Structure formats: structure tokens, C-alpha cells
Q: What sequence folds into this?
């Protein structure tokens, strides 16, 4: 997978951050909407705005009736707080931003895939809570 020089990458099979046990890619994660969600990968970089962690999830039902953005945005917030935050290192630099992304299927980061619906949200972390930041 080609990435810019600063990108780091962990897939579900290798995901262990801050001593957290890896979660297999095919394990369904519980979310408020009840849609099927699996972890795909986590990426991190240091763009001009500071350290950013990107948690990418496969959500095959998004874009369908009852699974539009407004139906599943609560799931992104939920995964930011219950999945992403617990996996941040307790020592070292903290991210200035966490990005949660949903995709109908696995895609390569940074490659436009027009036939695949994707949703993204960015958050800053304050007092253990994810605060929505608008792109």
C-alpha cells in the first residue's frame, strides 16, 4: 500500500496500541443503530494540524434505506468514544484529531472509489469525550 512518508498503518490483525488486544477484522462491533460494523484499519500521521488517528470501519449497509448518514452518525460518535479513545496511548503525544470513517467495503486509503459509499467524521478529544469537528 503506497502512503505518504509520514503515514503509519495497522490492520486489524496487527492492531495493538497501548497494550490493547487486537480485534479480528471479522468481529462485529456493537453500535447504537444495530448495523453490522467491523474494524478495517487504523492509520496515523502528523499533518500541519498535529497528530491524527484514522479509524476505518467496514459498514456494508451504509447508503441504503435506514442507513443514510443521519441514521448512522451516532455510530461514529459511539465508536470514537468506545473504540478509538480506549486505544490511544496513555503516554506520548495525544492526537489533535480522530477521524472515524465508514465504508461499504474495504478500500485503499486515499484512493477514490466512486462505487463505494463512504462517510467520515472528525473529532477532537476533550476529557475522554469525542467532540465533533466539521471538515
A:
Amino acid at each position: 500500500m503506497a502512503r505518504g512518508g509520514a503515514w503509519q498503518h495497522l490492520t486489524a490483525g496487527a492492531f495493538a496500541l497501548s497494550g490493547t488486544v487486537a480485534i479480528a477484522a471479522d468481529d462485529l462491533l456493537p453500535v447504537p443503530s444495530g448495523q453490522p460494523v467491523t474494524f478495517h484499519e487504523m492509520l496515523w500521521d502528523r499533518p500541519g494540524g498535529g497528530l491524527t488517528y484514522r479509524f476505518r470501519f467496514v459498514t456494508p449497509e451504509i447508503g441504503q434505506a435506514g442507513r443514510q448518514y443521519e441514521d448512522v452518525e451516532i455510530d461514529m460518535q459511539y465508536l470514537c468514544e468506545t473504540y478509538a479513545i480506549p486505544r490511544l496511548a496513555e503516554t506520548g503525544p495525544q492526537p489533535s484529531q480522530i477521524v472515524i470513517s465508514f465504508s461499504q467495503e474495504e478500500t485503499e486509503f486515499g484512493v477514490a472509489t466512486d462505487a463505494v459509499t463512504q462517510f467520515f467524521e472528525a473529532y477532537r478529544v476533550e476529557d475522554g469525550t469525542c467532540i465533533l469537528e466539521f471538515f
